[in-house]
Amino acid sequence: MASTAPQLLGLQKSFGYGDRLGLATPGHIAASQKYDFAPVFAQQSAREMKRTGRTPFDVMKAAADALETEGYDGAWGADADHLTADEDIASWAAAGFTFFTLDPSQFVNDQADDLAEGKVIGEAENLYVEGVFKTLDWDDRYLGEKYVAGQTMYRFNRESLYRAAIKYGRALAHCEKLAGFISSCLGHGAFEIEVSFDETASPTTPLEHLFVALELKQRGISVVSLAPHFVGELENGIDFRGDLAEFESSLEQHVAIARRFGPYKLSVHTGSDKFTIYPLLGRLCGNLLHVKTAGTSYLEALRILHRADFKSFRGLLEFCCERFPEDRRSYRISTTEDEVRSLATNAASDEDLLNRRPARQLLHVTYGSVLSEGKDSRGRPFRDTLMEVLEEHGKEYRQSLEAHFDRHLSALCKG
Ligand SMILES: [Zn+2]
User: Fold this and answer.
1) pLDDT tops 70 at residue 385
2) Per the domain annotation, does 95 fall within a domain?
3) 248 close to 307: Cβ distance less than 8 angstroms
4) Are strands 99-102 and 147-149 parallel, antiparallel or unpaired?
5) Does 345 score more than 70 pLDDT?
6) How far is the CA of 271 from the centre of ligand 1 (A)?
7) Full domain range(s) for residue 89
8) Can you tell me the mean pLDDT for 212-237?
9) CA 109–ligand 1 middle distance (angstroms)
10) Residue among 19, 79, 81, 402 flagged as catalytic
11) Distance of alpha carbon 59 from alpha carbon 94, whole angstroms
12) CA angle 47, 194, 129 (to 5 degrees)
């Protein structure tokens, strides 16, 4: 019998397969069944939903129907990703999602690190005035304590503690509010929570991570995973860029904190295509690892379009080039407008285009424009053409996704 309702996955290593078109699950299943990562087959962010015009119900139904058709009978999860506000939550809960990723980054104060020394105490006091901390002596809990995680001993001094609190305090209070709302929607035990800080302006230091872990516990928020902003660049659709040794040593500290003061998993967002760091992630995190991917399955869909209907692909590519300056704004990517302009004038007929950074990032950041309003020269929505091609070439799409995620999962298991 097929298992069409999502379950809680707990502290087993897991892998999230976001699917923006609703046709990728068969390929995701094919790859997933060969590895011991618990799969999250329904995963979409509130932002993706807006950009693709889908509802939580649509996302859930696409995954559940495919699982039923394939006769999948294992456990799987459903992630309501990057929730920022109360009003999102009820509709996700109603659709059956059981894993809620809270994104409080709008309440993170990215200026905290640069705040003039003389202003730190005043700003920290404001947190009490605003109700972020319920008592004025909240800092007594932390000052003078020693925290050991792995090989490292951490201590807060007044300044490091206050800066961490100024940076994350309001965000944590917001998480507390959202977690309470989820609990009232779903009842106890029926859901899991992740907290994500991956979209903050600067990397999360181990000491900041420790503060977050301690405060989550203090506030009674039990998380199954946490997404720090890792050092180095985890850009959309491409491999890790940055100093590997630095990434490794900071990852070691993050894992130790997650293990000692959770335990919870470390969640790697924008986790697709990071082949260079997968063996490290697999080795250092062990079971305390969750990887999220989303746009990379959409890029595989465009690969099928390139093969099956090149004329439509080229029209879509030109449309994306026009939209790039606007659509790139909400992303941290290194592809420039100049690179995109030279793409437009180059011949796009070589499929290898889809393996290179400029085209991958161009196509990645413009998916919302393509799927919501993009039309070819005859006025036909690109979305319709793409869906038709994928239905017609379902076997090829499935094979290309299987091979693509094979590369991901086998590298993660290599460590
Ligand atoms: Zn994220």
Assistant:
1) yes
2) yes
3) no
4) unpaired
5) no
6) 9
7) 14-107+185-294+405-414
8) 97
9) 18
10) 81
11) 12
12) 90
- Between the CA of residue 279 and those of 67, 108, 354, 409, what are the distances in Å? 29, 31, 24, 10
Per the annotation, the verdict on 73 as an active-site residue is no
Residue that has been written with the tokens 């901390």 in this structure: 133
Q: Which of 48, 123, 192, 194 is catalytic?
A: 194
> From the CA of 181, how far away is ligand 1's center (Å)?
21
Contact 351, 303 (CB under 8 A): yes
Asked if 289 and 308 sit in the same domain, the reply is no
Does residue 409 sit within a domain?
Answer: yes
Same domain? For 85 and 212 the reply is: yes
How far, in Å, is the centroid of ligand 1 from the Cα of 372?
22
As a whole number of angstroms, the distance between CA 74 and CA 33 comes to 9
Residue 380 φ then ψ, to 5°: -85, 130
Cβ-contact 126, 169 below 8 angstroms:
no
279 and 189 in a single domain? The answer is yes
pLDDT digits (tens, 9 = 90+) for 144-203: 999 999 999 999 999 999 999 999 999 999 999 999 999 998 876 689 999 999 999 999
Task: Indicate left, alpha or beta for 120 from its phi (over 0: left) and psi (-120 to 50: alpha).
Answer: alpha
* Beta-carbon-side half-sphere exposure of residue 93 (alpha carbons within 13 Å): 18
Rounded to an integer, what distance in angstroms lies between the CA atom of residue 13 and that of residue 258? 14
Is the pLDDT reported for residue 415 higher than 80?
A: no
Calpha distance 30→406 (Å, rounded): 9
Q: Closest Cα to residue 99, out of 42, 177, 139?
A: 42
The pLDDT of residue 77: 98
Residue 123 forms part of a structural domain? no
User: From ligand 1's centre to the CA of 349, what distance in Å?
Assistant: 32
Q: Is-contact 400 393, C-beta < 8 A? A: no
Ligand 1 centroid–CA 286 distance in Å is: 21
Can you give the length of the chain in residues?
Answer: 415
Is 88 catalytic? The answer is no
Query: Is 282 within the bounds of a domain?
Result: yes
Same domain, residue pair 236 and 378: no
The encoded tokens of residue 260 equal 């000692």
Give residues with Cβ within 8 angstroms of 26, minimum separation 6: 66, 69, 70, 394, 398, 401
pTM: 0.96
Question: Rounded to the nearest whole angstrom, what is the distance from the C-alpha of residue 200 to the centroid of ligand 1?
Answer: 10
Query: How many Cβ atoms from other residues are within 10 Å of residue 143's Cβ?
Result: 12
